[in-house]
């Protein structure tokens, strides 16, 4: 069967102009052009058991106007509440409709050489550094049509660089806030923790609930140097008419540590891949993710850990709730390469379905090419127990409230263990909003 | 005479197509404590579950009114908010939901939005009731019934009873699995609830329980219905002779629900 190839209406002339307008370095424009060509021939990714060929990845407005804020206090209440309350320093980037709207970074961090800025500014001011990390070790743009489209059309993103041995004790946060219901947010985040450094970074994706035809094509590259540590938190909360492709990739050096804390709370169709390459010896990663599917939403989540280094360790804990007619596939892949001896990879995926129309599927996969390792997986998919609901209701609690309690209870083992306090609080609130 | 709190007439209950309760009649008034005794498998828990509205049980015949209202028309949560309570023989475990959150949600379900119980008041009441029941304070923050021992689950059922203050409570084998001290503690909890506005139906196998909670009436259930009623002396007779004497007297050979009378 010939499937129609989804192309983008934005051609090479458009892209060249767009790049010029932003004063991008030549190497960056070259990648855009090459990627555009590739996007015409490369196939879409083929996620296990989810048909994405009719999802909208290409129809959107690419260059939409943003606005500038002089202070974070100008954010509307439902947006500003996402900004972490605990840190007085307020290291914050706000990208509105993809454009830099507000930026704050403490003098202390600046003086230590920390760079935290939107990607357009980073390309102008720190082009060589960005070049070192943009689609190099952690990600490739020639993987499939979506990575190619991303590199061709990237119009948003951030660059965070923490120099050697600098320990950042307060969390840094980016708020991607989409107000235009037809916008394409093609956003690229680069987070670099150089050797011996540490940082906690949180990003939020929020779009206004409005009818439209929008796309989010998000790639994040996280480089964790030798002896470095990154805590990466994300709360994705894009509305129903946004098709989301989210590809987050970590590259971990010797003795490095990467902790993921992710809430996948989009209301629209979502294709997500979370990948960690444990390259260095004794590198460690920990993935914790929760999600809730609503309405007739379709989602596909792949969490993939790739062990290369000896003594590398991974742990994955994924809990997903499927309500109404939602449908989600959870793929957990732990791959241990030959030579990664004494490694340990564990994964647990649990799916709870609230209605008889909801569908959930958990596929645990262990691919092991080394004898001297420990690896394990657990997966379960089940429907809510009517006797549990009966018990709660027999105390006067309505069915809706009872379901809410069971959902919170089901997600609690993951949420309560999230390493970033701000993400935990936000998630509890987003979950509350979703199940009300 | 005022309307009885609970009035059950000719109740028939089936599970998976099999009739278990077969023509059960009983009236309970405020202030009264009734005991239902009977051999294993005679339909006692089925009766209790059907009254609460358990999804697996089907009412095939009969009527039940609760304070004059048709109980069988109500959803499970409506029955509870109307004032019915069932301490279950086998309570569910709910992972990730703390006992305290659960209880507070249950209390607030009875109150208007905006009139939720103040947190401090809730904590104080909870502390006091847990104290009466000799429950360690850690039980407030433990997940609902998860990993509770048999006896701890029973105590937790009575804690819910005391926090929710229903008008009519059915206690299904609240005494089984309890050691003698725990039995006294649980009885103390139930006795604290005694008032003209509180009726109670105690399902038990043992006279011992009834020494601590004195019933007004005792009923014996066999073959899915009440075969004999009397005062507290009936329980003492059963304790002394077992069910054989009664079966002989009534001409019953097979007391289970499998046999027609
Ligand atoms: N799901 C079911 N499917 C088939 N039979 C059932 C089911 N549930 C209960 N029964 C049967 O109904 C009968 C009555 O059970 P019930 O639990 O009401 O007895 P009981 O009087 O409470 O007994 P006990 O004193 O042992 O608690 C038993 O024979 C039991 O096996
Ligand atoms: Mg029973």
From TrEMBL, chain A:
Family stated for the protein in its record: Belongs to the iron-sulfur cluster assembly SufBD family.
Sections of the chain in a coiled coil: none
Domain SUF system FeS cluster assembly SufBD N-terminal span(s) in chain numbering: 93-173
InterPro entries, alphabetized: Fe-S_cluster_assembly_SufBD (IPR055346), SUF_FeS_clus_asmbl_SufBD_core (IPR000825), SUF_FeS_clus_asmbl_SufBD_sf (IPR037284), SUF_FeS_clus_asmbl_SufD (IPR011542), SufBD_N (IPR045595)
Domain of life: Bacteria
Swiss-Prot/TrEMBL GO biological process terms: iron-sulfur cluster assembly
Species: Pullulanibacillus camelliae
UniProt protein name: FeS cluster assembly protein SufD
Source species taxonomy: Bacteria, Bacillati, Bacillota, Bacilli, Bacillales
Domain SUF system FeS cluster assembly SufBD core as annotated: residue spans: 178-410
Gene: sufD
From TrEMBL, chain B:
Record key words, sorted: ATP-binding, Nucleotide-binding
InterPro entries assigned to the protein according to its UniProt record, in alphabetical order: AAA+_ATPase, ABC_transporter-like_ATP-bd, ABC_transporter-like_CS, FeS-cluster_ATPase_SufC, P-loop_NTPase
Location of the ABC transporter domain: 6-248
Any one GO molecular function term: ATP binding
Top-level taxon: Bacteria
Keyword Cytoplasm: no
CDD domains: ABC_FeS_Assembly
Matching SUPFAM superfamilies: P-loop containing nucleoside triphosphate hydrolases
Coiled coil: none
Key word Nucleotide-binding present: yes
Family indicated by similarity: Belongs to the ABC transporter superfamily. Ycf16 family.
Protein name (database record): ABC transporter ATP-binding protein
Organism: Pullulanibacillus camelliae
Lineage of source species: Bacteria, Bacillati, Bacillota, Bacilli, Bacillales
